[in-house]
Amino acid sequence: MNLPKIFKVACHTDNVGQGSTFVAVLGATSNGTLYINKALDRGATTVVVEHDVQLDQELLNRCLKEDISITRVDNARLALAQLSAKAYDNPADKLKIIGITGTKGKTTSVYLLHHVLKQAGKKVAMLTGVENKIGDESFSAQLTTPHPDYIHMFFAQCVGEGVEYVVMEASAQGFSLHRLETIFFAAMVFTNFSLEHSEFYADIEDYFEAKCQIFEHCRENAPRIVNADDTWVKKIMSAYKNLITTGISTNAAITGRLCRADMAGLKMDITYGSHVLTLESNTVVGSYNAENILGVFACALKLGIDPEVIKDALESFRVVPGRLERFELDNEVVVVVDYAHNPSSFQALFSMLHSNTKDLSVVFGCGGGRDTSKRPIMGELAARYCNKVYLTTDNPRNEDPESIVQDILLGIPNEKQGSVVIEHDRAKAIARAVQNARPGGIVAILGKGPDEYQLVGSTKTFFSDKQQVRKLC
């Protein structure tokens, strides 16, 4: 199947067709009002703008001549969500939508829960920043939480295909920018919380408050799963009642005891009520993924899925694209490609990898136009755990790549500077790291994961970490 490219309500002219409603949203880098004429050229019959927007007389005359309706609203983003839902007859109400939020683990948890529900015989779809799926059909994804015009079009397709469950990532910005307005979750999982997106939020408390909006988007009696091991999530536990807690190091309603968690996989005893279930995976590795598994197990259990079905599904799960993907090279070096791009992800990943090798190297950069405060922290963590640090380019956007590298270097102690190699060409940096690694070593290539592009200025070109690694195999 193909998803419709033309939406009934749209905020981008590429999705406008005959009879569409065009909502002019003021974005971070573009102003939707500048594209109204283009939307009319493509067939829009209604234009939505905010009350304070001044439209020039020529445009007003055109709208009058062509019988174009102009609707004024207080908030264009909110209107985009409300109008999109209404245009498709509120498809979210006809689905059981499960929201996964948290700083880390959203994508992995969505993939895991999607697999569990599918193995349980449910018709299921998913929305992630990696890919979107309806049944076995996969579609490309651009954002962690898409714009609401896409979301409701997608939901309408799900209803038409007989989908029962949709598992989706629910980002903080998805709430702050009204992308999740009109959506109420049949269940939710809060994985963890840590520093991220300081380029968007005033402070960490503001970011945390945005994450917590998910509790206001739950249906009555929806299972709400929270990770009791997380310091910030404990604040949630004091603010909200009737939560289902999971934990490895904390007493919780559903607990996990790690028997093994390394590069070879993990083994964990899960206790729920008076029952104990032993789960073993050779593909989902690392103690932090044990937390993701617990959250998914708890959610599936509360949705009525048989525990043995959940266990079998989790044990048969293969891999999330760009999340700890392993490549074993001829020179006895293991390369790991992962999306880790913030301090908490670096800490979790490095501590696990470091315990599995005496020669750990990392290739990474930081995205331009994003949170600058995390750059030196990531540099310090890389230098602390890794024998060799290769600093390179990762979507510099409109920032000078060298300036980004210098920000990272601020966190690396003087005595560790000798272990740093600066190579702005990402392909060359990957090749150098692999060629210089010793047998038994691990090379971690971080930051892009499944993304297959490099964004320099406003130019987007193809680039895949995994493709570069395969060239070296």
Q: What can you see in these coordinates?
A:
The protein is an alpha/beta fold. The chain is 33% helix and 22% strand. The chain has helices spanning 36-41, 57-65, 76-87, 106-119, 148-160, 172-176, 204-211, 231-239, 287-302, 307-316, 343-354, 374-385, 401-409, 426-436, 465-472; strands at residues 9-10, 21-23, 46-50, 69-73, 96-101, 124-127, 131-134, 137-140, 165-169, 187-190, 224-227, 244-247, 254-262, 265-272, 275-281, 325-328, 334-338, 360-364, 388-391, 420-422, 442-446, 454-456, 459-461. Helix 7 (204-211) links the parallel strand 10 and strand 11 (224-227). Helix 12 (374-385) crosses helix 13. The protein starts with 8 loop residues before the first strand and ends with a helix.
Characterize the overall form: globular
Number of beta-strand segments = 23
The CATH architecture name of the largest domain reads 3-Layer(aba) Sandwich
Helix content: 25-40%
Nearest-angstrom radius of gyration? 23 Å
Q: Profile the largest sheet.
A: 11 strands, mixed
N→C terminal distance: 35 Å
| Structural domain tally | 3
Strand order of the largest sheet: 8-7-6-9-5-10-11-12-13-14-15
CATH homologous superfamily heading of the largest domain: Mur-like, catalytic domain
Which percent band covers the strand fraction?
Answer: 15-25%
What oligomeric assembly is this protein in?
A: single chain
Poorly predicted parts: none
CATH class of the largest domain: Alpha Beta
Q: What is the third-level CATH name, the topology of the largest domain?
A: UDP-N-acetylmuramoyl-L-alanine:D-glutamate ligase
Number of helices: 15
Rounded mean pLDDT score: 94
